Amino acid sequence: MTLIAQPQSMHFTQALGLRCGRELGPYQLVYETYGQLNAQRSNAVLICHALNASHHVAGTYPGQDKSEGWWDNMVGPGKPLDTDRFFVVGVNNLGSCFGSTGPMHTHPQTGQVYGADFPVVTVEDWVNSQARLLDQLGIEQLAAVMGGSLGGMQALSWTLQHPDRVRHALVIASSPNLNAENIAFNEVARRAIATDPDFHGGHFYRHGVVPKRGLRIARMLGHITYLSDDVMNAKFGRRLRHALAGASFQYTTQDIEFEIESYLRHQGDKFSDYFDANTYLLITRALDYFDPAREFGGDLSAALARAKADFLLISFSTDWRFSPARSREMVRALLQNRSTVSYAEIDAPHGHDAFLLDDARYLSLVRSYFDQIAQQGGFA
Amino acid sequence: MTLIAQPQSMHFTQALGLRCGRELGPYQLVYETYGQLNAQRSNAVLICHALNASHHVAGTYPGQDKSEGWWDNMVGPGKPLDTDRFFVVGVNNLGSCFGSTGPMHTHPQTGQVYGADFPVVTVEDWVNSQARLLDQLGIEQLAAVMGGSLGGMQALSWTLQHPDRVRHALVIASSPNLNAENIAFNEVARRAIATDPDFHGGHFYRHGVVPKRGLRIARMLGHITYLSDDVMNAKFGRRLRHALAGASFQYTTQDIEFEIESYLRHQGDKFSDYFDANTYLLITRALDYFDPAREFGGDLSAALARAKADFLLISFSTDWRFSPARSREMVRALLQNRSTVSYAEIDAPHGHDAFLLDDARYLSLVRSYFDQIAQQGGFA
Question: What does the alpha-carbon distance between residue A95 and residue A101 come to, in Å, rounded to a whole number?
């Protein structure tokens, strides 16, 4: 059965107080829902998205080829997160470029496009904005909140900021904070964007240009870190782009020689056609800033003590951006608090991207976990 | 005792045939020598440099503070490579920006600065140019050739192109070729440079500008890959730049927040002040292209069968750019050929940079190896 997706929009007139001390508002959130909220309003699952994704989690848009949601293999009728039993909400985060209020929109007070004046939003701010959306949808408590990577940070943050509103949290390929290397990669990407002459300090909209050069570099670099060394060697290795039998090097410094170069340039070009530069800065900063243990002197166990949810954490063996070691830190901290935690380390070759891909063990693990939630909730 | 370094220059009128099919010439090589060539001319050691280095391997320039050579901890009187016993030659490679003929120089035929028209040079070309320099210096056979990283590739290549001219090869923190991930990082750096509007297709000299934005990005990215995750966490972690007690985030996307950002920006700025953009493209391409097994259908053992030298290979446990696994590939191939090989995997926290740093086990290992060479050669 094909799931038809239908984006919706909710307007919020009351400003949202942000961690940075500023307020954002009025604002809108774009979201999609799949399945039916049951009479007890107990079967809702919130999906939080990562850097490059949106509210469009599952299903397709009528008449649009290749319009599957970014987690369509995970969410839908009969899928691991089964929309025949669960009411699933996907929401686009503030600051994004896919519909919710972001830097491309007009500041209601000034009448100017936000651009670089859009406030710095954090994981905590996103969670609070999502909570308001759930209020409007009449959802007091989530059966589960779920996300991978930056989405997993939001899922974790939900359990800390709204502990009574989350029964289960699925934190996948995530981390309790970014380490120095991850911040460093983000910073290189941000500098590539911010030093692109077409960036104009973040106010490029006024100039009718887009800092595509910077966006391309950011995306190329991102792609390297999403893939494992092994999968890059398997997919591309040292193969030449024009790999005819006996083909030799072209000896060029500016043209494409190896297939991996062609792949990265293509990914960079695609990305620069649709992604917003200010959004890229904001989202990477939200990643950098997330660090619930910070207020607790680095004691993650103390930071997570507020959580009342049960947890499923999943990591992937070849993920060097959000490594299994980082998931294990969270597992240890939760166990110290006597939280209920399940943890799986999936032996997968695909690196960080694995959380989006079809891996039978991974998908069946998530399926089992949701089966259990449904049984507990009486809507199996 | 302080070693005083003195750069010298050698002019070559005969053009050098290159792998790319083009010829380069006339050209000059800048080099330095330390110690004395013995009467038998048997105590010469050639040092090959990596991406960012030069002929200035050891010693200082009179009256110049902090002018120590890049491997001054390794080479000098009483050092592991002891210039009281060995005659050491450091040579700047063609295409570099430190004195030997490169893209910043004028093409003798056209009277124009080479810029992007400088021919693509390879590791093999460098080795051939170094061999010509040794001819002029009256050195028929090297006691040893030694290099780290890209320098190690040159050392390996020496044993294949001029097997009778090398008694020992020290191949440190190196690889028999780059894998897809390494090529990918190089390509991101090259694109950052080549898409900088100030690059002008490589002819920026004519425009009186320098593509500093691209060079900064390239260098920032490089630095991430030279360091290990562990050492970055130890040196920088998540520390804020303004880390006063209780200091909070500034919530900024374009300004520096974390110390690691400050470090990377500083490194990028420094680099963009002195390094040449075309040289960066050329040297990263030389890295990409090096692959002696390619002509042998990928059979590294067959490729290395020509070598007659004895080998010392060294790798560092946390080097993820030129990992120990890549050194082990070379060791296995050499052992299959019954070459004489010593191999050490040094447990060091510093990542790829370790080959330049003071590690007692590493330095004493190299010292012992050169002691042995000196004893064999009768100049101990």
Answer: 6
Closest-CA residue to B96 (of B226, B284, B223): B284
Query: Inter-chain contact B216–A191, Cβ cutoff 8 Å?
Result: yes
Give tens-digit pLDDT for B247-298. 689 999 999 999 999 999 999 999 999 999 999 999 999 999 999 999 999 9
Residues of B in contact with A254 (CB under 8 A): 116, 190, 194, 201-202, 281
Q: What are the chain B neighbours of A235 within 8 Å (beta carbons)?
A: 180
**Residue B20: its chain A contacts at CB < 8 A?**
249, 251
| Residue B314 near residue B354, CB atoms below 8 Å | no
Q: Nearest CA to CA, how far is B249 from chain A (Å)?
A: 8
d(CA A115, CA B316): 45
Q: Do B281 and A254 make contact, defined as CB atoms within 8 angstroms?
A: yes
Annotation marks residue A149 as catalytic: yes
Six token digits for residue A170: 């699925």
Determine the Cα–Cα distance for residues B227 and B208; give it in Å rounded to an integer: 34
B121 vs A contacts (CB less than 8 Å): none
**If phi over 0 gives left and psi between -120 and 50 gives alpha, with beta otherwise, what is residue B91?**
beta
User: For residue B244, what pLDDT is reported?
Assistant: 58
**Segment A212-236, tens digit of pLDDT:** 999 999 999 999 999 999 999 999 9
Q: What is the ipTM of this complex?
A: 0.96
Q: What is the pLDDT of residues A24-50, one digit of tens each?
A: 999 999 999 999 999 999 999 999 999
**Nearest by CB to A253, which of B195, B236, B285?**
B285
Residue B13 in tokens: 């009128």
Eight-state DSSP code of residue B363: H
pTM score of the predicted model: 0.96
Parallel, antiparallel, or unpaired: how do β-strands A27-34 and B8-12 relate? unpaired
Kindly state the percentage of chain A with pLDDT values over 90: 95
SS3 category, B107: coil
The segments of chain B whose pLDDT lies below 70 read 1, 243-247
Neighbour count for residue B14 (Cβ, 10 Å): 10
Query: In this structure, how many other beta carbons lie within 10 angstroms of the beta carbon of residue B247?
Result: 10
Position A183 pLDDT exceeds 60: yes
The structure tokens listed for A32 are 């999609």
Gap between the Cα atoms of B269 and B220, Å rounded: 9
Tell me which of B125, B196, B276, B319 is the catalytic residue. B319
Residue B342's Cβ-count burial label (10 Å; 0-12, 13-18, 19+) is middle
Instruction: Verify whether the Cβ–Cβ distance A20 to B251 is below 8 Å.
Output: yes
Cα distances (Å, whole numbers) of residue A182 to B228, B236, B281: 12, 12, 25
Of A21, A116, A249, the CB nearest to B289: A249
Q: What is the distance between the alpha carbons of residues A194 and A190, in angstroms, rounded to a whole number? A: 6
Give the nearest chain B residue to A277 (CA atoms): B253
pLDDT band, very low/low/confident/very high, at A245 (cuts 50, 70, 90): very low
Tokens for B262?
Answer: 């400050």
Which residue on chain A is closest to B254 by alpha carbon? A194
Question: Which residue, among A376, A253, A94, A367, has the nearest Cα to B119 in the 3D structure?
Answer: A253
Confidence of residue A243 (pLDDT cuts 50, 70, 90): low
> For residue B26, how far is the Cα from the chain centroid?
24
Q: What SS3 class is residue A17?
A: strand
> Which residue of B198, B233, B254, B272 is the best one to mutate when testing the A interface, meaning the one whose CB has the most A CBs within 10 A?
B254
Looking at CA atoms only, how far is residue B370 from chain A in angstroms?
A: 35
